[in-house]
Structures are given as structure tokens and as C-alpha cells.
Amino acid sequence: MGKGWGLTLDSDPVTSNLFTNKSNSTTNVAGGSFLGLKQHHHHRDMFQFPVSLAGSRDDDRRGTSASSSPSDDTKLPVDEVDFFSDKKVRVVDDVKKESIEAPASDLDVNTGLLLLTAGSDQSTVDDGVSSDMEDKRAKNELAQLQDELKRMNAENQKLKDMLSHVSNNYSALHMHLVTLMQQQQQPPQRNRETQAIQESKPEEATPLQILDLRRPSAAGAEAAETISHSSSEERTRSGTPPSNVEKRVNREESPESESWGPNCKVQKLNSGKPVDQSTEATMRKARVSVRARSEAPMITDGCQWRKYGQKMAKGNPCPRAYYRCTMAVGCPVRKQVQRCADDRTILITTYEGNHNHPLPPAAMAMASTTAAAASMLLSGSMPSADGIMNPNLLARAILPCSSSMATISASAPFPTVTLDLTHSPNPLQFQRPPPPPTQFQVPFPGQPTPVSSPQLPQVFGQPLYNNNQSKFSGLQLSQEMGSSQLGHHQQKQQHQAPPQQPPTLADTVSAATAAITNDPNFTAALAAAISSIISGGTHPNSSNNNNNRQ
DNA sequence: CGGCTTTGACCAGCGC
DNA sequence: GCGCTGGTCAAAGCCG
């Protein structure tokens, strides 16, 4: 009966493999361990699955109601049936639902009657029957659980990819929306340069790139980044007074900009515009800092990183590590990882640059989030006090429903957006946001119901309970115009958010559920949060490798 | 053996 | 000019 089963009942393979496959602190090949894509079934094009997420369950429900109908609301297309058709054991309840996809001969319904008739030893009729029945009933339940587990793993996998896809789509669409909003709000300020650009570029690049995003592959990430770039530039030109643009150009001009691959696209689109090069340099300088609670030495964001340096930073006993992306030769993306001086459970990861190569699905969440955040920052706020846009307007434009998600640090030398994922979630906060505008709802063909919650804790193949300190925080969108440096600024931020009572798993789940259900604006930050959660607690003792330098 | 980490050295920017 | 600091380089060693 167990022949052909690749699953075990001891644990959820999705999550267990995630942990065991986590090779080391720095490399975590995306798509493998992060999403667990290779561990179970053949990875199909998950984006074609019109799965209703409302039918999914979390671990608790899975454990307590294994015999209940797991997918009353789950609609599997016909081409999905071979996913389960080779199973030799059928749960009685499943016969009704899967009879359309399995031949009748394959419906080996294990009932008590079947078990009785199968018994051949007549001498054990008295006491042996009951024990045999118990035994075979136990086996039957085991088979049911295995069946259940297998189906739910497949379901989990679909949802994982779906969330990643939605996250990327949302980031791109949201940036485009912000661009349009700002254009509408400030039509008189549109300068000649913008008009000239649009005249010379009658075919808007952004819609095309949004179309590109529909490809559920790494190309989507590329397109998302491109959108971030283009929207950033567009808003830089249209939403900022020209004098500020020039000021920004002069300040951010840097020789480092020559090797920035993703900007080649932008250069093609806007060839001959000197402002583009400066914007590229600005993109190089813009930073997105992610604060997350994690015991791991580095958060797992789906990319491959190589450590190229470590230094002691002023004011922090913990060393700062420097990493560069090694997923492609010449990728300009770098990141700094440092623990918070005050709360060493907080890991501060600062990203800089944009990838110039396709990203695996696991890396797209973080990449698109950081790209969007960087674009947001660069388009709306700059370090110079006289060049600042209306921060409140920007805040509402960027995060209309969740106005406390990101801290924009315009402090010198680099503009930085901090996504603070360390705060305790307040479920009420997530429930309060107004219903999202219809244009925020990413349409999924064949997906009539909104993204449902119980699946969320495993959405990246990782249960939240692995790091009960990881939280979906409210990000605080405030315009800080201090003159402190990045590190000092981050330390200041750490004081402003006293730790709250750690939420229960249920609270976290419900908060995240409400967030993603009621407020699609959380999607990007949520992806980042989940990414940070992935690494939490996996290396409990690995944070002490303080190789002090200098 | 290739890729990675470690770590001292080097460089640039900035303030005094 | 000097010192401080952040960031990077590159040689040496480690590891699978």
C-alpha cells in the first residue's frame, strides 16, 4: 500500500525540508529550499491553477480534521487530476470529489467491510477480527492521512507560487498607480522634460512592462524592477520641481553607475536624457533597510550572496557584514547585514542596487519589495530639506491603507527606506484599513475568492511558529530629516518601537490574514516579512560570530 | 578544486 | 594635513 509514496507522516515535508536544506547562512538557492519547489511533486506552472485559496487550511486544521473534506472550495482543473490519480488509497470522503478524475477501478475504498473480507485466517475470528480490524483501520487512517498530506502539499505549493506572483504583480502595479496618481495631482508642474520624453516616447514603457509582468517567471522580476525604475524616473521628473531634480542629479552623480545592468533598459527607453544616468546613480545609492527579528546570521531572501567584507561600525558592537549578489556575474546588488546594537535579535539588512539578472521566485518577493521601496523613496523624498515633496502626500500615495509600514529616512548620505518588520502585529490595525480600491485587486482567472488566510503561515513553505518573534509589523511611515548616518538612524528607530507582547501564532496568522485580505498594500511588505521569517530560528547560535575588526 | 569566508590593508569622503 | 569612518579589495585559509 505504501508503494509509491514519497511522503512521510512524521512532519510536513514542506517545512521540514526547508529547514534541512538550508545549507548555510549565506547561500540559499532560491526556488529550492526557500519555496520547497523541488521537494515534492514536479513543479508545474502553478500560475495556471485556478485554486480557490479559501479552501486551504493551516496545520491545526489539517491535524484535527484529516477526514473532513479538505477542498470543498478547491477547484482543480482537469489537467490537474494526474496529480493524484496514481494514488492507491482513497479516502471515502474523497471518492465523491475525485471520482471524476479517477477510474472506478482505481477507487480502492478501504472500509471496514473490505477489511473483514480480506482476512483469510479463520481461526482468529473471535479475538483476531477485532485486532485485525483495529490494525487495518489504523492503516486505513494512515493512508487517509497520507493522502491528505499529499494533497495539501500540492495545494501549499500552488499557494506559495501564487503569493509570490501576486506580490510581484502588486509591487509593479502599485508603483504604476503611484506614478499615475502623482501625475494627476500635479499636472501643472509637469515640466518640459517630461513632455519631451513623452513626445519622443509615444508608447509608454510602463504598460508594456506591466504586460511583461504577467509572465510568471523570473522575467517578471526583471519587469518589476524595470517598472520601478521607469516609474521612479517618471515621478522624478513629473513630481519634483525641476530645480530639485537638478540638485539631486548633481549630488547623486557617481562613477559607480556605469555598471548597473538593469538600467540599460531605461537607458534604451530614454536614450539621450542625461537625467537618466543620474537617476541610475540615485538608484545605486538608494537603500532599502529591512529590520526583522531573526536569530539567523542573515535573512533568507532567495538570492545568493557572497561576503566580501566585514567591519566594525561605529556605535555598534556587532560587526557589519558586506555581501554582494553572486547569482549573476556583475550583479551590482549589495547588502549589509548588521545586528541591532540595542536588540540583537533584530537583524538589519540593507539592500542597495537592483539585480541585473532574472530572479528565482523566492527572490522576487524581496527584490521587488526593495526595488519598489527604493523607487518610492527616490521618487518622492530626497535628503535635501528644500527638495522634499510633501511627505504626507507621499505617504498616502505609497501606502494609502497602511500608513505605518515604512520609515523613509532621507538622512545623508544615502536615502533609505526602512521596512520595519520587528513590531508586534496589531490585528485590529489590520482589520481597520478601508476596503481596498478595486484596482488593487490583482485578478486571477478562475480565482473567485480572495486570498485566504489560513494558508498564510506556510505560504513560503515555512510555518510562522518557527520564529514566534517574527511579526508583521506596522511599518512607520514618517519623514525623518535628521542628519545622522544610516547606522545611527537605524539605532534611533530601534528606540521608537518598544517591544510588545509577542503574539500567538493565531494572532500572527489572523493579522497577516486580515492584512492580505483587506489591504493588498501589505503584499510587498508581507513578502519581505515572510522572507525574514524564513531564516528565523534556524541557526540559534550562529549570531555570535563576531569577528571584530579594526 | 572551486567557491566561500576571513581579515588585514587600502582608499575615499568628511570633519576638525 | 590628520584622524576617523565606511566601504572595498585581495590574499590566505577553509570546506564540501
From TrEMBL:
Residue ranges constituting the WRKY domain according to the UniProt record: 294-360
Keyword RNA-binding attached: no
Gene Ontology terms, MF aspect: DNA-binding transcription factor activity; sequence-specific DNA binding
Primary residence: nucleus
TM regions (residue ranges): none
Keywords assigned: Coiled coil, DNA-binding, Nucleus, Transcription, Transcription regulation
Alphabetical list of Pfam families matching this protein: WRKY
Superkingdom of this protein's organism: Eukaryota
One cellular component term from this protein's GO annotations in UniProt: nucleus
Coiled coil location: 135-169
Transcription keyword on record: yes
Subcellular location: Nucleus
Region (Disordered): 54-78, 182-293, 423-467, 481-508
PROSITE patterns for this protein: WRKY
Composition skew (Basic and acidic residues), residue ranges: 245-254
SMART domains noted in UniProt: WRKY
InterPro entries cross-referenced by the UniProt entry: WRKY_dom (IPR003657), WRKY_dom_sf (IPR036576), WRKY_plant (IPR044810)
PANTHER family: WRKY TRANSCRIPTION FACTOR 31-RELATED, WRKY TRANSCRIPTION FACTOR 36-RELATED
Name of the protein described by the UniProt record: WRKY domain-containing protein
Organism encoding this protein: Gossypium barbadense (Sea Island cotton)
